[in-house]
Amino acid sequence: MIKFITSAKNKNNYPVSLKEIVFVGRSNVGKSSLINALYGQIAYVGKTPGKTKLLNFFNYDDLYTVCDVPGYGYAKLSDKEIIEFGEMMEEYFSSREIIKLCIVILDIRRIPNEDDLDMLEYLKYHDIPYLLVFNKVDKLSNNQINKQIKEISSVIELNDNYIVVSCLNNKNINELKDIINENIFNS
To answer: Which superfamily does CATH assign the domain made up of 2-185 to?
Structure first.
């Protein structure tokens, strides 16, 4: 069972935890829908992107913490809000050594943009383990999925560090749960 702990803007308000999974992605990529598919209806799914403004922490069965961060790259943010977001994310990632896995959610229909590439470079630079999750595969045929993965792999190195999922029909949601559990319990 998962339950909400707190929302926080800085490390003074982060909950105490031993292990944590963090979910990141561009606004409108289906981050909240994926969290809900994995854990039940806990994250707010809005009609307008960019609603999440704080780090939202959830306790999963007293085993680990789930952190839902605001979507990045949302165009309607002011310059001040973009700077504040960057500072909040820098403080979170640099002070949260308990992160066992960062789930980087990408819309399979879109080629990763500069914001996505910056996030991946940041995670690599700081040696934060991550998994690419290509969401919204229900919108494409198998041939289109394969074509998109090939195109995406021309922009970012995939290796086998990705999974394709659909929150709409739960495609590979259980497999993603298994990967999360592996990272939580085997690290």
So the answer is: P-loop containing nucleotide triphosphate hydrolases (3.40.50.300)
